[in-house]
Structures are given as structure tokens and as C-alpha cells.
């Protein structure tokens, strides 16, 4: 039997502006990073390898420009979320709708008004928005003119953006998060940090300087939120992927620990504890990293600690120090090595429900602040049957097993606020730019070649998740 979820548990779904909205030139919106990333499997190599130029190539297809047209269809989509019984809807605000270039002095009224309409529609249906302030869509102008988050000036621009949205939406938004999957900058600096590494050997200094600027910006946002909206809560948002040692060899155990500290805990330590962790000092020394800080930065970080941890969980990661005998076989998108005990999705992401319970226990044991799973889901190829239904039993099985482990973690004593399944409606994949990598409870008729009617259809999982929410996790 499923474990009882606490009263007021925040069930819902999650999306990001750049992956659902479309309307990329409407309402005076400026160009953002997602707008210049082409669709298809080449995207992953573009965002993880040196030398990307942030230009639109007329020969390529850019799915984020139309996405699933939430910009015009938000009322229809929110009605479907309400039909499932969502308590919350995690979404993001597109920075370039509010400040098209990022460095303007005054916000764009058309952009502000659009989110007013979205928030009002959500509240009409009794759904609380959970808003990510910056989700992989930095203004391209800030990338080209300032070098992304490498520039200290961007902290000022971000603070101006935050003030504008807090001022406008206080009373409409109770739950905020600063930077989506902030630690992804270690793997994909283009998406999170707003620059492309030009040479692999030069990545360390600019990457960690950019992180420092984001930590200061995040802390300032937290402080502003507490001052302007004392009733609201604001969290950080990280990717969490527990790291297992390949075997009981102490060398592999030590390697796994070091990988986990850097990837899973570094950013969270700064944002939750308010200080740089001790383990990072050796890493900085060994990689020749010397951070430029302004007077008072460490005080700002200390004063701007978050109220909760939002995190994404898709997979675990298995690590071996010497991989030379494994023929270079990579475990999944998180690198590492293949775990012989786990199956993988169609995209090679290893499926590990117990890893979610492990993650929840590790995070709560380290930080003792409320946790919020704001992304978890299965990207899969879905088939519309001839007579209309979409029987995504594989998705139901995936989510059921993960929700069961959430219940176990709550029994373990973990303070878990809520769960928003990723891509509650089909959207454009961030890592591959594909429509065919579907996550949703709601099917959107849109395909990798750009064809499709954008018609929405309820999948089998739609009705299943409705029952899960209505029974507060009892009926899985």
C-alpha cells in the first residue's frame, strides 16, 4: 500500500517557458538562448562542446520558436491541468519577455501583462503557480555583449528583473525558485551560465566565476523576496543524481564521493548553508581557480539562504575511477559508467526509482530544509492508436514506482513539500530539441519536422495521475 502523503502536499506538473510558450517574437519578447538552439540530436553536442556562436542558422529548424504555443493556448492547457486536479503548476517566466535585451532600465509591459493573465487563469482554477525565475533562457544580448554570467554586471541586470517581477506579482505567486538546475553549468554552461567554453582547458576559471555571480544574484533575490513578500517561499533548484561506486574498491568509493560532492552538493551548500564548502578549496587550488569577489559578497550569500530545495531527479550515476577497461561506454547523459542493475529509457537515461528515495534521504540528512521534487518523468516515444487512445502504461509504471519511493522517504522522516512531474504536457526537450521525446499526460500533435496540428489529447496516464492526486497518493 502507498504511504500516506502529508495534508496539503503539492501535487502538480512542471514546464519551462522556453519549452512550451512559443510566440518567440510576440509581445516585444527578445531573443534568448533557447531561441538559437536548433532541434535534433545535434543539440546535445552543441550545448556540451566548445565553440557555439549563439546565431540562428536559416538552414536549421528551431522548435522553441513555436514550441506547443502555450502563449496562445494557456487557457485550454490550464483547464486540462485543473481537470487532473493540480494543486500547483511549476512554470518559468521568460526573462526576455520582461527585459527583451536584459539590460534595459524599464520592464516590458506586454510581457508583464501576459504572466498576469496566466497567473489569474491558474488562480481561477485553484492552482498555485510555482515560478522559476531563470530557466535556461538568458537573453542572447547579455551573452554577446557581456559574456553571460562571467560578467559581474549581469548580477545588476538580474536584480532589476527580479525586482520587476516581485513588484508585479506579489500576492499572485507564493512559491519561487531562482535558477533552474544551477549545477548543470558544470556540464552545459551554455544553458545555465550563458557562455560557450572555447577551449576545454580554459573552462574552470570562467565556470566558477560565473557560479559565484549566480550565487550572489540568487542570494539577492532571496533577500528581496523575504522583504517584499514575507508570506512567500523561495528555493534553489538543482539536479540531483546520487553517485554510486562501481564496486567496493575504496578508490572507486572515493572517486564517487568526490563526484557527488562537486555535482550534487557544491551549489546547494552555498545556497542553503550560505557559504562555500570546505571541499571546494582543494578543487579550486588543483584547478588554478581564483574567484574575484567584491567586498560583502560572502555576507550577501550568508544572508540570502533559501527556504527550500527544489530539485530534478531523473537518474542515478555510477562512477569508476579507471574507465580504461570499459571501452568508453557511458552510463547515461550524466556520464559515469553503465549500472548493470538498471534498465534505461529510449534516450539512455537509467531508471532508478530507489535512487529517488536515496536522494531524498541524502538531501534532507545534509540540509534539514523542506524538499520539493519539481522535475521527474519519463521521456518516451508515444503512439496514437488507430482508434485514438494513447496507452502509455510504461509512463504510469515509471511514475508509480517513483511516487512509491517518495512515500517511503516520507516514512523515513523526510520533509517533502510536493511533486511536479516534468513535462506534464508534451513539450520541446531541452537536451535534444525534439518533440518526439514526450513526457506529458497530455499529448500534443507536433512532430520533429515541425508538422502537426497542436491538438491536445489526454493520454492514459492523464486519468491515472488524476486518481493519484484525488486519492493523495493512496491510489497508485
Automatic annotation (TrEMBL):
Its EC number is 3.2.1.86. The keyword Manganese does not apply. Keywords: Glycosidase, Hydrolase. This is 6-phospho-beta-glucosidase. NCBIfam families: PRK09589.1 (NF007154), PRK09593.1 (NF007158), PRK09852.1 (NF007356). It comes from the Bacteria. The active site is at 375 (nucleophile). One of its GO terms (molecular function) is 6-phospho-beta-glucosidase activity. Signal peptide: none annotated. The lineage of its organism: Bacteria, Bacillati, Bacillota, Bacilli, Bacillales. Belongs to the glycosyl hydrolase 1 family. It holds the Pfam family Glyco_hydro_1.
Amino acid at each position: 500500500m502507498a504511504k500516506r502523503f502529508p495534508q496539503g502536499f503539492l501535487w502538480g506538473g512542471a514546464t519551462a517557458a522556453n519549452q512550451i510558450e512559443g510566440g518567440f517574437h510576440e509581445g516585444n519578447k527578445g531573443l534568448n538562448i533557447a531561441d538559437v538552439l536548433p532541434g535534433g540530436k545535434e543539440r546535445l553536442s552543441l550545448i556540451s562542446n566548445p565553440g557555439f556562436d549563439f546565431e540562428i542558422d536559416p538552414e536549421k529548424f528551431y522548435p522553441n520558436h513555436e514550441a506547443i504555443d502555450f502563449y496562445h493556448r494557456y487557457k485550454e492547457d490550464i483547464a486540462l491541468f485543473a481537470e487532473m486536479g493540480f494543486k500547483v503548476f511549476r512554470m518559468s517566466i521568460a526573462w526576455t519577455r520582461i527585459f527583451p535585451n536584459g539590460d534595459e532600465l524599464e520592464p516590458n509591459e506586454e510581457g508583464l501583462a501576459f504572466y498576469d493573465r496566466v497567473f489569474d487563469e491558474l488562480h481561477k482554477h485553484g492552482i498555485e503557480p510555482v515560478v522559476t525565475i531563470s530557466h535556461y533562457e538568458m537573453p542572447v544580448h547579455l551573452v554577446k555583449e557581456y559574456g553571460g554570467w562571467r560578467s559581474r554586471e549581469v548580477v545588476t541586470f538580474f536584480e532589476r528583473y527580479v525586482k520587476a517581477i516581485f513588484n508585479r506579482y506579489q500576492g499572485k505567486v507564493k512559491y519561487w525558485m531562482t535558477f533552474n538546475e544551477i549545477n548543470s553549468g558544470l556540464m552545459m554552461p551554455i544553458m545555465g551560465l550563458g557562455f560557450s567554453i572555447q577551449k576545454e582547458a580554459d573552462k574552470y576559471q570562467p565556470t566558477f566565476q560565473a557560479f559565484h555571480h549566480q550565487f550572489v544574484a540568487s542570494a539577492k533575490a532571496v533577500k528581496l523576496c523575504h522583504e517584499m513578500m514575507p508570506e512567500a517561499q523561495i528555493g534553489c533548484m538543482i539536479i540531483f543524481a546520487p553517485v554510486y561506486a562501481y564496486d567496493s574498491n575504496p578508490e572507486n568509493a572515493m572517486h564517487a564521493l568526490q563526484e557527488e560532492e562537486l555535482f550534487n552538493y557544491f551549489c546547494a551548500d552555498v545556497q542553503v548553508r550560505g557559504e562555500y564548502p570546505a571541499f571546494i578549496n582543494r578543487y579550486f587550488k588543483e584547478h588554478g581557480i581564483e574567484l574575484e569577489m567584491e567586498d560583502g559578497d560572502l555576507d550577501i550569500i550568508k544572508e540570502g539562504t533559501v527556504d527550500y530545495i527544489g530539485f530534478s531527479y531523473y537518474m542515478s550515476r555510477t562512477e569508476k575511477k579507471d574507465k580504461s577497461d570499459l571501452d568508453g561506454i557511458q552510463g547515461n547523459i550524466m556520464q559515469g559508467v553503465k549500472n548493470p542493475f538498471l534498465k534505461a529509457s529510449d534516450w539512455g537515461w537509467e531508471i532508478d526509482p530507489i535512487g529517488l528515495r536515496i536522494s531524498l534521504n541524502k538531501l534532507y540528512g545534509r540540509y534539514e530544509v523542506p524538499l520539493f521534487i519539481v522535475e521527474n518523468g519519463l521521456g518516451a516515444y508515444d503512439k496514437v492508436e488507430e482508434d485514438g487512445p494513447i496507452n502509455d502504461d510504461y509512463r504510469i509504471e515509471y511514475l508509480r514506482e517513483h511516487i512509491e519511493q517518495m512515500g517511503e522517504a516520507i516514512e523515513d522522516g523526510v520533509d517533502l513539500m510536493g511533486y511536479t512531474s516534468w513535462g506534464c504536457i508534451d513539450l520541446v526537450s531541452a537536451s535534444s530539441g525534439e518533440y518526439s521525446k514526450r513526457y506529458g499526460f497530455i499529448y500534443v500533435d507536433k512532430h520533429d519536422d515541425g508538422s502537426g496540428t497542436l491538438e491536445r489529447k489526454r493520454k492514459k496516464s492523464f486519468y491515472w495521475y488524476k486518481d493519484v492526486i484525488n486519492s493523495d497518493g493512496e491510489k497508485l
